[in-house]
From TrEMBL:
One of its GO terms (molecular function) is magnesium ion binding. GO terms for biological process: isopentenyl diphosphate biosynthetic process, mevalonate pathway. It is found in: Cytoplasm. It holds the Pfam family GHMP_kinases_C. The active site is at 160 (proton acceptor). This is Mevalonate kinase. It comes from Thermococcus chitonophagus.
Length: 329
């Protein structure tokens, strides 16, 4: 028997980092997916195979015969530590230990702030639990995905696995989510080509928070208020044009606050300014920063913004919001 599951990447529209401190955030699933196929084996071994894991500048494929593997593939190996934990948790949840083959194929660049780790964790939990006869809801898979992140990276708000498991457009706060009315967002994602470590960036913000709370707490509070404002705009009766203009302004403020936290880089700022100059209404980091991606809101200007991002040395992706989260294929 075999089960194929898939889960989407995500972008955080507003509220990354402050969400770790219990503030709300708004995120959406996008139409890049990770596919995980799980199949039972006759022996007790667990074999993990990964194809085309996209690490900046490198595409690697490899397979391992044992669950405890060592690898020199850096970022790709990091992805596999999420897979390993996801398999362990799914088996624990099902109360059975079986030998399985797990095969992964992904369209999501690793370390780009698009939630590749969460997507692989969610798809693995979905495939393995179903293979072991367990019917988990998407919410249950999201909670297990959050556990995987906590085990692998120490700190996590849980927003990435929640958006990946549930899909669509979500308002997220302290482990709970609410669906926002679906909006087609004319966005362009710009990839810097280098990756930031979410774990290290979250730890860096924590050190600043502890050493200068009088400065950092007001920044985090402002981010929380900004997310509330964004939700008001999204759920308001304003027409689309007015909504986009207000959301763009809030994105620009959010980017400035993230820069103040220290998670932007020269390249991220260059892509953000290139996008604004090319007519985007707003542009900001998405995800942990330190490299990774920015995104721009550019109604009617997506092509121009994509070109500007390319000229500034980034890789543009014109993408759409995906209504669907975890899917058993
Ligand atoms: O994994 P990324 O790069 O999308 O970042 C996750 C968002 C953070 O707020 C930085 C961390 C978290 O756990 O919410």
């Amino acid at each position: 028997m075999r089960v194929l599951a898939s889960a989407p990447a995500k972008i955080i529209l507003f509220g990354e980092h402050s969400v770790v401190y219990g503030k709300p955030a708004i995120a959406a699933a996008i139409n890049l997916r990770t596919y995980v196929e799980a199949e039972l084996r006759d022996d007790k071994k667990i074999r993990i195979e990964a194809h085309d894991i996209k690490v900046p500048g490198l595409t690697v494929s490899f397979s391992e015969n044992e669950i405890y593997f060592e690898s020199d593939y850096g970022k790709a190996a990091e992805v596999l530590s999420y897979v390993r934990q996801a398999i362990e948790l799914a088996m624990e949840e099902a109360g059975v230990r079986r030998g399985i083959n797990v095969s992964i194929t992904s369209q999501i660049p690793v370390g780009a702030g698009l939630g590749s780790s969460a997507a692989v964790a969610v798809a693995t939990i979905g495939a393995v639990s179903k293979l072991l006869g367990l019917e988990l809801t998407r919410e249950e898979v999201a909670k297990l995905g959050h556990k995987v992140e906590l085990l692998v990276q120490g700190a996590s708000s849980g927003i990435d696995p929640t958006v990946s498991a549930i899909g669509g457009f979500l308002y997220y706060e302290k482990g709970n989510f609410e669906h926002l009315p679906f909006m087609e967002l004319p966005i362009v994602v710009g990839y810097t080509g280098s990756s930031g470590s979410t774990k290290e960036l979250v730890a860096m913000v924590r050190r600043r928070y502890e050493s200068m709370p009088e400065l950092i707490v007001p920044i985090l509070n402002a981010m929380g208020k900004l997310v509330e404002k964004a939700r008001e705009v999204i759920t308001s009766e304003l027409d689309e044009e007015e909504k986009f203009a207000k959301l763009g302004e809030l994105m620009n403020i959010n980017h400035g606050l993230l820069d103040a936290l220290g998670v932007s880089t020269k390249k991220l700022s260059e892509l953000v300014y290139a996008a604004r100059t090319a007519g985007a209404l707003g542009a900001k980091i998405t995800g942990a920063g330190g490299g990774g991606c920015m995104y721009a809101l550019a109604p009617g200007r997506q092509r121009e913004v994509a070109t500007a991002i390319t000229i500034a040395g980034g890789t543009p992706m014109i993408t759409e919001i995906s209504r669907e989260g975890l899917r058993i294929e």
